[in-house]
Amino acid sequence: SEDIIVVGERQGASMSGFGEIIASAVGKQIASKLGELATEEATLQWRFKDDVEVMADKMQDLEAVLHDADDRLRRGGRDGEVVGRWLTKFKSVAYDAEDVLDDLDATELLKKSQPKLKLFFSRNNQIFQRITMPHKLKKLRGEIEKIGKEGQALNLVRHQEQAQGSIINNESFVGICDEGLRSGVVGRDMEKDKIIRLLLNKGAIAREGISIIPIVGLGGLGKSTLAESVFVDKRVNDFEVRAWVHVSKEFDLRKIGSAILKSINSSINLDNCSLQFLQENLKKELAGRRYLIVLDDLWEEDGDKLERLKQMLQHGRKGSRVIVTTRNQSVVNKLSTGVLAHQRKFCPVPNSDQINLFVLSTDECWEVMKQTAFGPDDDKSDLEEIGREIAEKCWGVPLVAIALGQVMSELRTVEAWQKIRDTNIDLGHRDHKKTLERLMLSYYYMKLDFKMCFTYLAAFPKGFIIESDRLIQQWKALGYIHGWDDGKRCINYLMGMSFLQISRSSVIRSSPVHANAPRELTMHDLVHDLATIILGHESLVLNATEPRSRKKANRRYCRHAQLINYQNQYKVFNDLPGSIRSFHVRHSEKQQLSQKAFSRTKYIRVLDLSGCLVVGQSTPSSILLPSSVLQLKLLRYLDASSLPITSLPESFHTLQNMETLILSNCSLETLPDSICSLHKLSYLDLAGNARFSKLPDNFHLLSKLIFLNMSSCSKLTKLPDNFSLECLEHLNLSGCHELKNLPQDFGNLQNLRFLNLSDCYKISVLPESFCQLKHLKDLNLSDCRALVVLPECFGDLSDLESLNLTSCPRLAQLPESICKMTNLKCLNLSYCLGMLELPSSLGDLNLQILDISAGALRHLPGSISKMTSLTEFVVTSGHPRVYEKAQEIKKHLNLPGRKVHRVRNTGRGHDSIVELGDVNCPELLIGSLQRVKRPEDAERIKLRDKSCLRQLALHWNQKNMNAHASSAEYVLKRLIPARNLEQLMIQGYSSKGFPNWMWHISSHLPCITYLSLSDLGACDNLPPFGQLPNLRSLYLQKIPNITKVGRKFYGKGGTCKKLRLLQLQSMDNLVEWRTTLSGKEDGEFLISNLHNLELKDCPKLKFRPYPPRSMFWCLDNSDKVLAGSTFWKLSSSILPCRMGIKNCSFYPGKWHRLKQFLTLEEFSLTSCHGLMALPEAIRCFTSLKKLSLTSLHWLEKMPEWLGHLTSLQVLGIKDCCNLTFLPESMKNLTALRVLMLLECEGLDILPQWLGQLSSLRELRIRDCPNITSLPESIRNLTGLVRRSRREDAYKVSHIRKVVFELEEPNEEQGQEESQEAWMNRLSKKYGENPSRHREEREELELISVQAMD
């Protein structure tokens, strides 16, 4: 016999829907809570222990009979209807019981946290509570007893809980987008291929305008999944622009336009933008570009609105396509009307080409179900027949098949499957009746623990997107789960059923991110309908603009409310049901809420005010939290993100149940001290509060805090001295630019797993206790530009899996102990410009990813070749020796290396470039592109499909140009790389202009970090490279027709915020480079965080209004860079610390401009013609530690003020032939540790005061023929003499090179690079050829290509 569940629309029923089904879950929760309370001390103190015990017993009895009530409900009929109403009443009483119990808990918390006198005069007066609480409990006891008697009258009997059978992979299913695609497109191969043919039909593209491809079908048939499988298919990568928008029933042009524009160009600021602004920018972004846009779930049938949508999207190039998914053919018919459709500019494809989805066959449904229900090796024989019978119940709907398949995977017995097969559900008359009935069957057999979590999702609007961690926090606040792990299991379970999905728009626009990053979740509309049916009258939507609908709402059973379209209609809060537990404000203006807004709703646990935002509205300067919020004793979750709140009330601590507090992107400057008494607070998000400067001193009292996000709190200068948060697992301090150090007790964060310190510009060292973070797994120190050293004990972080040191320019080396970190999987050392070597034992690590791109390493340790765990080894723009060694290591470890292809003529009607069509490698160099005769051959290699490609080099050899060769622009036009390309190098490009994709490079290649253009003889204008959001290194060489870099280079909103290396070489005619859009001082500084500025042979270049403030400077034959008179007025957090000048012939008045470099620590002068005395400005370098003077042939003497540079530790003088003596003032250089005198023919005697250099540890004299002896005073430097055992060690005339140094160098000295090597590096890198390493490597590349001629 079949079980039948009947849920109809009953006249006069006190509830609607299927909400009684979750009564079991509610009863279980309340019975447990009453049982716990009966044993607590509070019940004795309040003298109502008897009441609590009776209620606990009664609730346990009721919980036991719920199973019988459930069975009778499923059998339907009049009896089932009566039992259903009883279950609804029971659930309401159970909720009331929980409210009273939680209120009691809150009162006890307040009693412990507040002074008695203060409590006496508050609303929480204990005497008042002692009078009222017993009355509440007695009333509650009466209601529970009454509902129990009604249950007895129904003859409900106790049932024993039955086992659920074999449970496979219990709660471990993780919904994967790709897996979902494979399941959802079963039986849709023909439709998918048809859509792709329509997208790629070149004949149609040439003759048509913009085509709409409709996918029409009932809900749940997989329209969106089919569209997504097409969207991510490599065959459709030819479109220059791609965007995905979920439209839903609420048709909003502003929302649609914003979503498309955000997908195209994420750098455009859409805050407070108007519809006109969106239309104008969409016109700019789409003009001349072929796009593919998916409008998912389109319902709108108003022809005028649809025409305005087409007008907004009409500016794309011919061949652009719009895929529309819809349930209604009438929507497609309306799209066929209007002016643009009649002009054939923008209309649907012919009816014969439309995609109409029909139900799957039973066999196809069974295939979908098997993918979820069974593992690849499971025995299906005993369940196959029953499974096919259940597949018939799916009615051909893939969504149902997936949901049932997940339920069946948990109940792997014949009996359980038979029960599923024999259970039918009747939902009465409603839309999508059959599909919802099948989905309800899946819900009916869902795990009891997760039912309440699922039904709560009806409290969100259709098409909602929510981060997984915030959803978990809300579930926890409502008591549905106990902890974070429960929440993750629930999300995985619901994703396995397709009741939750990863947001398609976030999947499509995302780049690879950390696996632990919060997922953006959403829900299919039909599943949302199901949750709404189940929740029934427990959910309420209040539309502030429709008072009549508010009055009609049934508020008796309401527990969750949404407020929409609020615009200061204060009276709407009078309609809020007093028993609501969650309240969300959505699609409303940022207005001051009424102070008494929540005075009647004291049981709210979740309060979300983050939806107080309408796109295009003006923002008030500040608002206050309503004072009535402080009366919400049960409040556990508060989200006020993006509201301009400047402060929290001092009495905020009365919210003693607060667990989650989200105040991101507000206007806070600090927190009240009283917040430290919120002892249950576990999740605190303060990200984006740019004015926030200080945490309370007693912040450590938040002992339950697990998550703390303070990213982009750019004014925060320090953390409290006591920062011992013993439960903290996640700490994000990224973008805290002013944070100077971490507390000394930082290592007491024993449970810390994730730490992000990226862009903490002023942190120079980590505290000694840092190495006590034994459980740390993910550490991000990228762009900590002041960081100079890691603790020697760093290897004690034994659990660390990921270490990111990108762009730490002052970090000179890694500690040897790092080689002990056997759990380390990912190490990123890219753009570490000060790191010259790696530990010799680095190969002992079990790394999977090692990135040393764009660094300064001189060699690689051989042990890396033994690192068999390595799967990705990234090396670009380094020393040629390092690059070649890396290629050898890759080959030895069988890692994918660089593929080099030289174009040649095959004699078979096409060029050899087509051979790259099947190549998919991480690094690709294509040489001799000048030989390409047919541009379409370049298109045939389908670079866009090569998703593994990370580095691409394109070379034209101008010396071997072929008269029959195609234009370089035509070839480059067809070489559009895949979207995730990271490094792009173009050399020898001979055309004047660039193809369209280069002019929109920020949307085509948003992941680009390294860009190199060289030998572009005809080019006279650069694309807007400044718009590239991730660009870290830009190298331009030999582009003679570029005379000015101005506004167009930065594009719309480009600020080069991540640019760290700017290298210009042989830009002979470059006259001006603007560093503000206007070129004037009042503009925003656009290159604000440069680490290295290298200029060689740029003799005319001036930066307007001033040069970028860089940490490292290399100027070679670029005299006019410092010519601007306003440079020192620049306000910047960048502190220059290293400078090299070579071949620059400044007249005396120019040298004074160096006075602005007060923070320099290293300085070198090389081959500066005519320089007879050191510039007076150098004496201002009070922090100078290293000074190098090389090939200053006109220099005759050293200045007396040299002795004032008391911080100087290393002085090197080389090839200064006219220098005859050292000034006596040098005896004051008490910090000098190294003195080098090399090839100084004019020096003939060393002064006696040399013996007063008490810190001198190393003296190097080489090729100084006139120095025949050391002064007697050298004996005072016992550390030097002790090393030499000759009696006449002080006589050196017979020795060509003498080195005196300490017998046992200290640890710091032992780790330091050879000082002579340092001097050579300065003389070569800072001036002679700042980009020599890159040139050498590119020459090697060209040689390797030309050798194949």
TrEMBL record:
Keyword ATP-binding: yes
Record domain Disease resistance protein winged helix: where: 460-531
Signal peptide: none
A family per Pfam: LRR_14
Domain (Disease resistance N-terminal) ranges: 31-120
Record-stated family: Belongs to the disease resistance NB-LRR family.
Name of the protein in question: NB-ARC domain-containing protein
